[in-house]
Design goal:
15 helices, alpha/beta, 8 strands, 351 residues, TIM Barrel, eight-stranded parallel β-sheet, globular
Length: 351
């Protein structure tokens, strides 16, 4: 598609893209400095941002430029692909790689920048609050502050220094999210040091595979830790067709029940519901990065059409043809409207 070609608005639905990344240029500079210092000691971060923060190859150069723009260039790209509205989230790993004090300050700074953009383009952008999970109480306070901005959700870029939200020390975040009726978008990060080595050896640590494995694990840990029993109204969003979990639902139910019965693991306790029930009742799925009709329809079948929604994964996956392909899915107009528009309006309270 040429730069002057535009995918026209669809008369039957708005196209709302729900996992669209951004980052101020200053944050990318911080990533590069952190990588160059070697202080973090995280091979996943080094693999990801060692490349994207400094490489002059076309893809990382393109992504750095697009991430930093919250104005005319981004809106032009939206217009070219027929995207009516973006839900903006601070790119992975967000502020979660920094120490506690720096992360808290950076979360506040980036949220202020995002608020300015949303106020300038209220019909085109909505924001999700970036938080520092390593400081759960301050994170809850930042959610309260950003509620005054009208932000629509919370972005958490999976693990924080190798620690997972299944640990009760982080549950003040869940408590605040449930109380404020804000969904948490659990976005991928590279696998932490304890699990990444075989991924890096094969070049599979990023979006090709490692992201999905790590984030699917994270969500499953949250479920099996009993988070949704403790916070039954909490809603979590995951991208990339559910990070494979919808396709494992039968086995997850069977093996979780077997594990509980066998008392093999001290950490595996009975839940009030089946794993699949939580996936159907407490989880929303976006198709970010997976513009594939069979996968979308399968998730709609097993999770529900009211829980599957559209995302482009801009700018990491900016492929205009994918919008055309999804417009042409063999799907009735009412279901397609739910996918592109209505589910997003429901979960993010846009309407």
């Amino acid at each position: 598609m040429s730069a002057t070609t535009t995918i026209k608005p669809n008369p039957n639905y708005k196209r709302i893209a729900t996992e669209e990344a951004w980052a101020p240029a200053e944050l990318i500079v911080r990533y590069r400095k952190l990588y160059e210092s070697g202080a973090l000691g995280d091979p996943g971060f080094d693999s990801l941002w060692g490349f994207y923060s400094s490489s002059t190859a076309p893809r990382p150069t393109f992504i750095r430029e697009k991430l930093a723009d919250l104005g005319d260039m981004r809106i032009a790209d939206m217009d070219a692909t027929g995207i009516d509205h973006q839900i903006l989230a601070l790119t992975s790993p967000g502020v979660q790689v920094f120490d506690k004090a720096e992360a808290v300050a950076l979360a506040r700074e980036t949220n202020d920048i995002l608020n300015d953009a949303v106020r300038k383009y209220p019909t085109r952008f909505s924001g999700m609050t970036a938080i520092a999970p390593q400081a759960p109480e301050q994170a809850a306070q930042e959610l309260e502050r950003c509620s005054k901005f009208g932000f629509k959700g919370i972005i958490i870029n999976s693990h924080t220094h190798g620690e997972y939200l299944s640990d009760p020390k982080f549950w003040a975040i869940f408590e605040a999210a449930e109380a404020m009726n804000l969904p948490i978008y659990l976005h991928p990060n590279t696998p932490p040091p304890k699990m990444i080595e075989p991924f890096v050896e094969a070049g599979l640590d990023g979006a090709i595979f490692g992201f999905g494995v790590e984030t699917g694990l994270h969500l499953l840990r949250i479920i099996t830790a009993g988070v949704f029993d403790r916070f039954p109204k909490l809603q979590i969003i995951v991208g990339h067709m559910g990070e494979a979990l919808p396709y494992w639902m039968y086995r997850l139910d069977y093996m979780h029940a077997a594990g509980v019965k066998a008392a093999r693991y001290e950490c595996m306790k009975p839940l009030k519901k089946k794993v699949s029930d939580y996936l159907r009742e407490n989880v929303y799925i976006t198709n970010s990065g997976v513009a594939w009709e069979p996968a979308i329809k399968f998730a709609q079948q097993v999770i529900g059409v009211d829980r599957v929604m559209y995302a482009m994964d801009y700018p990491y996956q900016y492929t205009p043809q994918e919008v055309i392909d999804l417009d042409n899915m063999n799907m009735d107009v009412a279901t397609k409207k739910k996918f592109y528009q209505s589910v997003a309006e429901q979960v993010f309270k846009l309407a």
